[in-house]
Amino acid sequence: MAAQRVAGPGYDARRLIVVLTLLAVDAAMPVTAMAPAAAAPPTLEAEHAPLAAHTLLIALAVADTRLVAVGDRGVIVYSDDRGAHWRQAGTVPTQALLTGVCFHDREHGIAVGHDQTILYTQDAGVSWRRVHQALDAPGPLLDVWCGPNGRALAVGAYATWLSSVDGGRTWVPGKFAPLPLKPDAQQRLDYHLNRIAAASTTRLYLACEAGHLYRSDDAGQSWRELPSPYEGSFFGVLPLDGDAVLVFGLRGNLFRSEDGGLKWQRIPTGTQETLDGATRAAEGAITIVGMSGTLLRSTDGGRHFQLSMQPQLGDLAAVINVEGVPVVAGVHGVQRLDAAASAAEAQRH
Fold it and tell me: N or C: which end of the chain has fewer CB within 10 A?
């Protein structure tokens, strides 16, 4: 079957995570008929390949000084030298597309993806075990948050919601039921929950389909809907200092709030490429990445950005800052931007 995408209001061309990544949603399409009961299929292991670090990778996380990236067909790679060299994880019991990864500490982490696959590691990503899967689920998991005291949340398409209180070893499905903007307002609650990010141990944000935004001030126990400045889908959210926060997504749309998402200001980007990942360095510099090698950089807290198009990088899905150097993940795998810039300069001479 040809690759398809999750349908829904505002779910426009997101080439990497919704088309390439596929929100390939043969796995994410609603089930229309139940097949006869059958034995569970055998567990497939991610295949090992010399160029694993150069395949489609779409999420990044830090485990102390180690970097971990996850992506297509269950590939997980890690680096202990700030992204200069990568090794593939030894045991990964899935070939599903992995879409999110986080760590509680230097050893214990979680990865999530299609077929509602959830993986758990206790050796900093060297090996993983599968702790949850739902092959008949209507949509994939898209992101995961590792919180304090072993709390974790996994979110995904059609408002998929699972929680853990033991660091990701066991999971309980739940219902996403935020407080509406207006009392007694009718809400549609099957939007895709695209990205979850923490501003602190208690404040969380959700960036969602069709312009929906949510905030929790009690570590995900309850949520409130925020006024949205845009009806198109948001694919990323980056909390800043205090109550400041950035949200971004389709067609280069980027907005900044200084009051926790109650009021928003549009930030010009100079691009209509979809924006998908962001990071902030210790000194405050912000990098946002997106399709077609889009790079946006700010040195004033996200009030102004400078656009740089780097098409040789391909579509970019995630970025993380390592000692002042952004490391990106996307259709060409993981790359340090300083190394990528040096290679591009060498090709010009």
Answer: C
Give the model's pLDDT for residue 345. 44
| Cα–Cα distance for residue pair 99/317, rounded to 1 Å | 10
CATH number of domain containing 326: 2.40.10.500
Domain limits at 292? Answer: 268-349
Per-residue pLDDT tens digits for 81-99: 999 999 999 999 999 999 9
In a domain, residue 203? The reply is no
Rounded average pLDDT over 202-218: 98
pLDDT of residue 280: 97
Dihedral sign computed on CA atoms, order 133, 87, 56, 316 = positive
The number of helices, as runs of H, and strands, as runs of E, in the chain is 1, 27
Residue 76, pLDDT > 70, answer: yes
Q: To the nearest whole percent, how much of the chain has pLDDT over 90? A: 80
Domain total of the chain? 1
Provide long-range contacts, Cβ within 8 A and 24+ apart, for 284-289: 285/321, 285/324, 286/238, 286/240, 286/246, 287/319, 287/321, 287/326, 288/236, 288/238, 288/246, 288/248, 288/254, 288/319, 289/316, 289/317, 289/318, 289/319, 289/326, 289/328, 289/330
Question: Which is nearest to 177 in space by CA: 187, 192, 185?
Answer: 187
Q: Which one, of 139, 252, 143, lies nearest residue 195 by Cα? A: 143
Q: What's the rounded Cα separation, in Å, for the pair 285 and 298?
A: 6
List residues bridging with 196 in a β-sheet. Answer: 206
